[in-house]
Design goal:
By secondary structure, this protein is mainly β. Helix content is 0%, strand content 61%. β7 and β8 (77-82) form a beta hairpin. It is elongated.
C-alpha cells in the first residue's frame, strides 16, 4: 500500500527548465532513499540522481551541474530541478523509493512515470 506519484513533466525548449516532483504515500515506516530514473526509446533505464535520508546525493555524469535533486523527509517528497535541458534529456522519468513499510518489509517502489520532452 505504497504509492509514488510524479508530476511536473512536459514539453520544453532546449535550454529551458522543468521541475519534477514525486510524493510517496501509504503505509510507510521510513524511506531510506529516493531517486529519479529515466528511460528513452531504445535505451535502458538509467539512474539520473538519487538522495539518501541524510541528504547525500549522486548524479549521472550527463546531468551534473544541470540537475539538482532535493528531498523533504517530513513530506516524503523528492524533487528534481532540471536546468539547461538538452534534447537528449527527452525520456520518461520515473521516481523510485527504497523504503521500509509499516509491516517492516523492505521494498523498492516506482511511480508511473512522467514524460519530459525537450524540443524546439
Amino acid at each position: 500500500q505504497v504509492q509514488l506519484v510524479e508530476s511536473g513533466g512536459g514539453l520544453v525548449q532546449p535550454g529551458g527548465s522543468l521541475r519534477l516532483s514525486c510524493a510517496a504515500s501509504g503505509s510507510i515506516f521510513s524511506i531510506v532513499g529516493m531517486g529519479w530514473y529515466r528511460q528513452a526509446p531504445g535505451k535502458e533505464r538509467e539512474l539520473v540522481a538519487d538522495i539518501t535520508s541524510g541528504g547525500s546525493t549522486n548524479y549521472a555524469d550527463s546531468v551534473k551541474g544541470r540537475f539538482t535533486i532535493s528531498r523533504d523527509n517530513a513530506k516524503n517528497t523528492v524533487s528534481l530541478q532540471m536546468n539547461s535541458l538538452k534534447p537528449e534529456d527527452t525520456a520518461v522519468y520515473y521516481c523510485n523509493a527504497a523504503l521500509v513499510t509499516s509491516t517492516l518489509r523492505t521494498i523498492s517502489s516506482w511511480g508511473q512515470g512522467t514524460q519530459v520532452t525537450v524540443s524546439s
